[in-house]
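Predict the 3D structure for this chain.
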Amino acid sequence: MATPKSSFRIAPSSSSQFPPWTPFKIPLKPSKILCSRNPNPPSPPAPINLISILRVIPDWADAIQESRLKQKRQLYKYEDWVEHRSSLRHLRHLLSSLSSRVVLSLVPPVIAFTTVAVVVASYNTAVFWDLLPEFFPILRASSLPYQLTAPALALLLVFRTEASYSRFEEGRKAWTKVISGTNDFARQVIVSVETDSVLKTALLQYILAFPIALKCHLIHGSDIGGDLKNLLEDNDLDLVLSSNHRPRCIIQFISQSLKLLNLESSTLTTLESKVTCFHEGIGVCEQITSIPIPVSYTRLTSRFLVLWHLTLPIILWDDCHWIVVPATFISAASLFCIEEVGVLIEEPFPMLALDELCKLVYDNVQETLKSEKKIRKLLNTKIKDAVSSRKHTANGHPASGGGQSIWPNNSSNSIDN
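Done. Predicted structure below.
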């Protein structure tokens, strides 16, 4: 439980606020004052060329996607599940397509391949109407190669998405172990360490700080200082921020605190096993973050999709003519959408509600601390009542009920039948 920090600070003396006064001296050589020059001139604008123009839409889509990834996720509640399985979900998802980061990230490739389809259709139409010289051929081909390679493309997309979901599931399970381990660790400290010492409070603070530090370690751009400033003391926070590996620094705080508590060997061994669980969580999460799906597999899927849609208008021209434009649009939007979902969930931690999970752990520990003394008081009262009832029982017989526990809401003659 975080101890409240005092807002009282001792103001420094006036002598420390201002430097010592020194007499003003005129320089021997006049300094050159260049009023017309800016000491920090602005950097010249980037030259506009064809590549920069072509990158406008992809850069815009990437910026939106990265900004959406930084949004905090929420844990589902009952109302969210009701909306999630609602019969109107299909219409709601369709109407929100333009605000979906997956759909917006598909804008560059879909526009590119639809433009290629328009160019191919325009060229074939110009050749058909003799608007070009006769030696220009119509771009057409047999659809047999596509019929043979379509199953291979489908398998590539399925395996790619399945591999990404396996990583997502592995990351979710790793964080489930971290959260459950944090709850169990804090519970055992509350029960094992009976005295409400400063060291016990600090140890609980370090335990609660670990999942927050791990979350900030895994998600780029996290503000670990802002997340931990109300949980750790200033000196502890400064040391954590100065370390290269913040979660392992928190573990060092936990290990040193356990040694200073002078616990029994069995209790100390049990608590140190929870530290091992933290180390395992760090190892699994770092492997998922730093080791992606084999890059050759991702490149093969991407190249297959690009070549497929570049030649799709040529394959479909004899059967569809100008319908190759909407056909290419629908095919690119569908297949690239599947591939994009696989790429997004390949890095699972920005997709998980880690902030909510850390807050949930903090609330659980706070509730445990508040109810600990009340529960202990109630149990002690029950023990005293049982002892006093035995003393007042006549002739050594047990009190009413014969020492047998009666299930609530059940009468004594409920089993007569």
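Residues 405 and 412 are 11 Å apart (CA to CA).
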